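About this split. The held-out portion is used to measure sequence recovery: a designer receives only the structure tokens and must propose an amino acid at every position. Recovery is the fraction of positions where the proposal matches the reference. Here is one held-out target exactly as it appears in the evaluation file.
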């Protein structure tokens, strides 16, 4: 099957699997864990974080001039909302990365198993990757993406660049993490390298699409100043939406790469059967 057709075929299958009761149930695992972490940080660190950001604004000459300008035009009331809002904006990228790591390590193995059972029962595991190695790969890739975000942050203020660069970084991160975990327990190192190389363009396109989908939770922050006062709750709601988006992404990569792996192995061995009538 041609890569573009395989992408579309895997897309609708991933959408269907996203509604599977087991996937919905699995999505609450990262939510509960992230909720406990965010709750703890909010309880013990929110006030200190606000104080730290306020101190930074007060000591930075540029922000001081901006705050004075707000006072001069009668918008001094925005001071109270500005500091918590900036703290939330700083927290969102970290929430994104945490959600991606939680999905990759808590949900992806179970979803790969689900897809294998229903569609690719004949694919054997030639090499299983340890949990620590998978986590190490995810962490290294996340640190590279985070570094790219920090380096390119000034360019995000350019409207056109802001629409392209962040989804591209998130797309690369999603593709590298999800593709590795989808093949971790079924493909050998050489098979994984061959698939990631030969399908790099398609996988990157899929990652960028998922990167744009990852912007969906940002709509929650368009509710106005109310979001500042409900920031912990909004972050928790964002976590679940991010979790569902990344779960769909994981399923999309799993369907695509297991199909590609089946085709790759079929060049030397008999074709692995697909369960009749399965989606």
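Reference sequence for scoring:
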């Amino acid at each position: 099957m041609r890569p573009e057709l395989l992408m579309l075929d895997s897309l609708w299958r991933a959408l269907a699997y996203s509604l599977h009761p087991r996937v919905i149930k699995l999505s609450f695992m990262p939510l509960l864990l992230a909720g406990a972490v965010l709750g703890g940080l909010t309880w013990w660190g929110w006030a200190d974080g606000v104080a730290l950001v306020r101190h930074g604004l007060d000591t930075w000459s540029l922000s001081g001039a901006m705050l004075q300008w707000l006072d001069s035009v009668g918008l001094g009331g925005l001071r109270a909302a500005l500091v918590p809002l900036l703290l939330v904006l700083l927290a969102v990228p970290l929430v994104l990365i945490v959600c991606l790591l939680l999905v990759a390590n808590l949900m992806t193995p179970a979803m790969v198993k689900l897809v294998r059972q229903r569609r690719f029962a004949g694919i054997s595991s030639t090499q299983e990757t340890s949990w620590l190695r998978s986590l190490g790969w995810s962490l290294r890739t996340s640190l590279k993406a985070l570094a790219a975000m920090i380096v390119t942050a000034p360019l995000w203020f350019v409207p056109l660049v802001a629409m392209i660069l962040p989804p591209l970084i998130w797309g690369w991160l999603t593709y590298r993490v999800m593709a590795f975990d989808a093949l971790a327990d079924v493909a050998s190192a050489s098979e994984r390298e061959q698939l990631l190389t030969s399908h790099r363009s398609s996988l990157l396109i899929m990652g960028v699409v998922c990167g744009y989908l990852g912007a969906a939770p940002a709509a929650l922050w368009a509710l106005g100043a109310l979001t500042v006062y409900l920031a912990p709750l909004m972050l928790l709601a964002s976590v679940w939406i991010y979790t569902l988006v990344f779960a769909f992404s994981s399923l999309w990569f799993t369907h695509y790469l297991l199909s590609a792996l089946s085709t790759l192995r079929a060049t030397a061995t008999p074709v692995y059967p697909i369960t009749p009538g399965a989606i």
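Annotator remark: Residues 216 and 252 are 18 Å apart (CA to CA).
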